[in-house]
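Structure first, sequence second, as always.
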């Protein structure tokens, strides 16, 4: 697996005034990050409000970032969800569109109570996109997973 050397961003998701996701600014956002020397973006995570979006919105954002990503710019797609089936679907989609990697937090609900549950959750998601690096994104205060 190729390592990322340098900084990556956790970008916000742009919204229209009515609350719809706004894909239009993403190309300029990706270009600005690249111009400033960043090596990639970790999208649809907590900064990107991924848990507040529908699966379709998350997929559209991932596609927009992949389309906008300059050559060599690594897009890691956060695929975590309270619904494991949605996480699997998002991981498969990330692989299909050529994402560099995937990541997930422990679900904020239901809280994971044992390390074995967390490992199984992560294994299931990682297995949905076996060719991609998988990153565990740990924010205990967000998801209550203090293991």
């Amino acid at each position: 697996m190729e390592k990322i050397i340098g900084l990556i961003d956790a970008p916000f998701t742009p919204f229209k005034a009515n609350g719809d996701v706004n894909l239009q600014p993403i190309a300029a956002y990706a270009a600005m990050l690249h111009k400033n020397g960043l090596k990639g973006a970790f999208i649809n995570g907590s900064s990107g409000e991924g848990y507040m979006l529908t699966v379709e919105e998350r997929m559209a954002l991932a596609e927009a970032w992949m389309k906008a990503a300059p050559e060599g710019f690594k897009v890691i797609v956060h695929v975590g969800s309270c619904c494991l089936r949605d996480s699997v679907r998002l991981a498969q989609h990330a692989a299909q569109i050529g994402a560099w990697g995937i990541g997930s937090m422990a679900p904020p609900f239901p809280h994971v109570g044992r390390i074995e549950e967390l490992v199984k959750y992560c294994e299931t998601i990682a297995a949905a996109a076996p060719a991609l690096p998988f990153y565990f994104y740990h924010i205990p205060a967000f998801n209550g997973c203090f293991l």
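Margin note: The helical segments are 26-35, 55-68, 84-96, 115-127, 140-143.
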